[in-house]
Amino acid sequence: MVFLSALLVASVAWWVATGLVLALARAGTRYFKTVMALATGVAVIGVFGLIATEDRTTETSAYIAFFSAMALWAWHETTFLIGLVTGPRRIAYMEAPHEKSRFRAAFLTVRDHEIALFVTLLALVWFMHEADNTTGLLAFCLLWVMRVSTKLNIYLGARHAISDMLPDRLSYLKSYFRTDRTSGWFYVSLSGSAILLAWLVLSAAQADTAHGAVKWTLLASFAGLALIEHLFLVLPVRDSALWGWAMDKTKKRQSNKNRANRTALHTKPESETSRATARA
């Protein structure tokens, strides 16, 4: 019963939290201050939640730490999707000024966001590595690792990487996605995700306390969901269908058409010749 409860909680939390972040991002254009106040308030509660449960090893403390880590992650996602913390380059790849490499150009679009996430991760490791309850720390680490893996797949090549959930204000990011192929990294990351999932499931099965069972089941559930999200990158399915209630109505009407177009037309990275021509 403990395992089933944790699995359901993690799955519902993933679905609801993603939808709420999308809804906040959609509202950010009109209600920027309100959205940031809400997101920041939730993040502050998350910090206190992690502090309050770091030395407690009960079922409840595992859930609180897990949700607290999600609150911190949601703050970062909200600031990114509303365009507050992204990177110094906020233009499409083909637009001037041109960078020397596609990787540098792509990284500059998300640099500040990635630095903020990494600094938060380091802070959590620094303050919580000796805590009795590491559920929140491990949850944030898992989210970060899976996000980096996803972004590498999007950059290196995944045929259906362009999501309908990307706000219009960040539409320039699509020019950095490679959708003309599925790179070898996808198979490496998928295999790694499967191995990680198996290890977490085994850890949950071997847990000798209720706290451990909840902790490892929550993490295993998120690892499984992350693996599914990786599959969304290469399968012709609409990931946005799960969060239609949180998306802009115009995007919902256009998503089917966009998905069909992406199946037939794949974006290729700019060639050396075209870059040279553009610079000239």
From TrEMBL:
Membrane-crossing segments per the record: 6-24, 31-51, 63-85, 184-204, 216-237
Xref: InterPro entries: Photo_alph_chp2 (IPR017496)
Domain of life: Bacteria
Keywords of the record: Membrane, Transmembrane, Transmembrane helix
Pfam families registered for this protein in UniProt: DUF3623 (PF12291)
Start and end residues of each stretch annotated as Disordered: 253-280
UniProt name for this protein: Photosynthetic complex assembly protein 2
